[in-house]
Amino acid sequence: MEATRAKIRAFLAKFFQHADLKDSDDIFALGFVNSLFAMQLVLFIESEFRVTIEDDDLDINNFRSIDAMAQLIERKTTSHLAM
Amino acid sequence: MHIRTVGVIGAGVMGTGVAQNLAQAGLHVLLLDLSTDILQQARKEIFHNIRLAQLLKRGAGAKEDTATIIDRITFTTEYTPLQDADFVIENATEKWEVKKPIYEQLDTVCPAHCIFAANTSAISITRIASATRRPGNVLGIHFMNPVPMKPTVEMIRGFHTSEEALTSAGQLLTAMGKKWVQVQDMPGFVSNRVLMLTINEAIYLLQDQVASAEDVDRVFKECFGHTMGPLETADLIGLDTILYSVEVLYESFNDSKYRPCPLLKKMVDAGLYGRKNGQGFYTYK
């Protein structure tokens, strides 16, 4: 889980250069990026963690914070293993 | 008339937006372009944009599956499937030599009741209608970009356009969630006669080194409160499309005030088309 968080943090660092981002910070509320940025996060997560974000997961709340994204990835990878 | 199937000609920026919007409205779409490569790219683009729309939808609600929506679109390089079309929206390149043969083909293939809407920003609807044997069933719908997000369009009545055709177009637009402003047919209509001239003049400002691209746009945004400046808008529309549109206005009015700015021509020759290929007045990643 920590490795996942670190990868997300590294990706976000490209866009939040001056912000000291906490894992629980709402990146949309901070105002540096708009909601269109969420789609970039979807594509990043799909390619980096080799998961498929289904229609049901296409909810902006899943991409609000490093914690939320890590939980989504955790859920996707474990459900994948269970199959 | 009940519109079930809509043909969309051209799978560029506008055509893919129109196809997506129609599919999201529950209509069956036939999306036609010259090559399977272009169509594959369009499919990817539409898939991406439908997912984006799903993501931005507030609350859980009853979302339709992305797959269900995209399956309403048939991607084709053939005109034949258009024999089932009730309505066609044509989004080909803004050149008469390109559009004319398309309308001749459509007129042969499509059923007699089928209505043709030209999604053009400058070419005369009356002239387009003259390429068909159904001028009463030809009108213009000038969609704005990005199509699924923009709530209002210009609807253009050609010289022969019938009241019935306008009513059917209105029904289709309502289904797509759009409102419209109806205008008469004169090159550039309302929007582009003013916008293209504004953009062209803004490019002259840059050429004459009156101000940088950023500063030209800042004046419009910060002084006038516009959402975007003219040069950002040009990048969004595509500089090639801007050039074609200005050239059409120039040819239509034979008025030198529509002469295209040499810098615009140079940028198009250099392959700087704006957002769609990453470089215009600004650089896009």
Automatic annotation (TrEMBL), chain A:
UniProt cross-references to InterPro entries, sorted A to Z: ACP-like_sf, PP-bd_ACP
Family annotation (Pfam families): PP-binding
Domain annotation Carrier: ranges: 1-77
Name listed for the protein in its UniProt record: Carrier domain-containing protein
Lineage: Bacteria, Bacillati, Chloroflexota, Ktedonobacteria, Ktedonobacterales
UniProtKB/TrEMBL annotation, chain B:
Pathway annotation from the record: Lipid metabolism; butanoate metabolism
Keywords: NAD, Oxidoreductase
Example GO molecular function: NAD+ binding
3-hydroxyacyl-CoA dehydrogenase NAD binding domain sequence ranges: 5-185
Feature type site, description Important for catalytic activity: 142
Electron transport is among the record's keywords: no
Ligand binding (NAD(+)): 10-15, 33, 94, 99, 121, 145, 276
Species assigned in the record: Thermosporothrix hazakensis
Protein known as: 3-hydroxybutyryl-CoA dehydrogenase
GO biological process, one term: fatty acid metabolic process
Domain 3-hydroxyacyl-CoA dehydrogenase C-terminal: 188-284
Membership in a protein family: Belongs to the 3-hydroxyacyl-CoA dehydrogenase family.
